[in-house]
Amino acid sequence: KAGVTQTPRYLIKTRGQQVTLSCSPISGHRSVSWYQQTPGQGLQFLFEYFSETQRNKGNFPGRFSGRQFSNSRSEMNVSTLELGDSALYLCASSLGTDLREQFFGPGTRLTVL
Amino acid sequence: GIQVEQSPPDLILQEGANSTLRCNFSDSVNNLQWFHQNPWGQLINLFYIPSGTKQNGRLSATTVATERYSLLYISSSQTTDSGVYFCAVGYTGANSKLTFGKGITLSVRP
């Protein structure tokens, strides 16, 4: 069974631009969660989607948004990029809701210049 | 929100040694997971263990939910065990979010 995949793996953007990251969960998994990892703040929960609905959202500004498609694939969008958005963005999938037994993708490393 | 403290922050071992990693949390939770992040950034799920004890090869974990801590045991460590170990806790249900600790950096020397 294929694992969680994320594209692209690396991305360089400039301040003010927007970016879209993609995540494909493990086949059969319906929950997709997104996390931001930085050296200063560590791993922080962004949001979770289940059956195309956002179930929970972390403490991030509205510039961070996401969506989930009917095939469970998910995208995350960050608008008006700031230098502080430079981070490793991780996607995780799980079979059901409640963030149990999460399986992570390799991440997208975003650099904002 | 929930506070998660992991100790020790850093650990250096010789290959073959055993170790115990600790995770303390500030509230009653019903979701607790241990992850290993390898040097390439990949997070690997080790255990989903909101209570009780589980074992998987050289690794085992115990969570005492009533006392708000969890322990991860690594026996006969290998260089491939190096990386950062994270504990993540949370609730299931409508407010399901995972809060991660800062991690424990383990270096296993040959």
Explain the layout of strands and helices.
The complex is a heterodimer of chains A (113) and B (110).
Chain A: E1 5-7, E2 10-13, E3 19-24, E4 31-38, E5 42-50, E6 53-57, E7 64-68, E8 74-78, E9 87-94, E10 103-104, E11 108-112
Parallel strand pairs in A: 2-11
Antiparallel strand pairs in A: 1-3, 3-8, 4-5, 4-9, 5-6, 7-8, 9-10, 9-11
Chain B: E1 4-7, E2 10-14, E3 19-25, E4 31-37, E5 43-48, E6 52-56, E7 59-64, E8 69-74, E9 83-90, E10 98-100, E11 104-109
Parallel strand pairs in B: 2-11
Antiparallel strand pairs in B: 1-3, 3-8, 4-5, 4-9, 6-7, 7-8, 9-10, 9-11
Largest sheet of chain A: 7 strands, mixed
The string of secondary-structure elements of chain B, in order, is: EEEEEEEEEEE
Average per-residue pLDDT of chain B, rounded, comes to 94
What is the C-alpha radius of gyration of chain B, as a whole number of Å?
A: 13 Å
Largest interface, with Cβ-Cβ < 8 Å? A-B, 23 and 25 residues
Provide mean pLDDT of chain A, rounded.
Answer: 94
**DSSP E strands of chain A, number:** 11
Structural class of chain B: mainly beta
Give the ordered list of helices and strands of chain A.
EEEEEEEEEEE
Strand content of chain A: over 45%
Oligomer: heterodimer
Number of distinct helices of chain B = 0
Can I get a quick summary?
The complex is a heterodimer of chains A (113) and B (110). Chain A has 113 residues and is mainly beta.
Quick tags:
heterodimer; A: 113 residues; mainly beta; seven-stranded mixed β-sheet; 11 strands; 53% strand; B: 110 residues; six-stranded mixed β-sheet; five-stranded antiparallel β-sheet; 57% strand
Overview of the molecule:
- The complex is a heterodimer of chains A (113) and B (110).
- Chain A contains no helices and eleven strands.
- Chain A has 113 residues and is mainly beta.
- In chain A, strands 2, 4, 5, 6, 9, 10 and 11 form a seven-stranded mixed β-sheet that branches.
- In chain A, a hairpin with a 3-residue loop joins strand 4 (31-38) and strand 5.
- The model of chain A has no long low-confidence stretch (mean pLDDT 94).
- By secondary structure, chain B is an all-beta fold.
- Helices cover 0% and strands 57% of the residues of chain B.
- Chain B has strands spanning 4-7, 10-14, 19-25, 31-37, 43-48, 52-56, 59-64, 69-74, 83-90, 98-100, 104-109.
- In chain B, strands 2, 4, 5, 9, 10 and 11 form a six-stranded mixed β-sheet that branches. Chain B has a five-stranded antiparallel β-sheet with strand order 1-3-8-7-6, with no helix packed on it.
- Chain B is globular.
- At the A-B interface, strand 5, strand 9 and strand 10 of A face strand 4, strand 5, strand 9 and strand 10 of B.
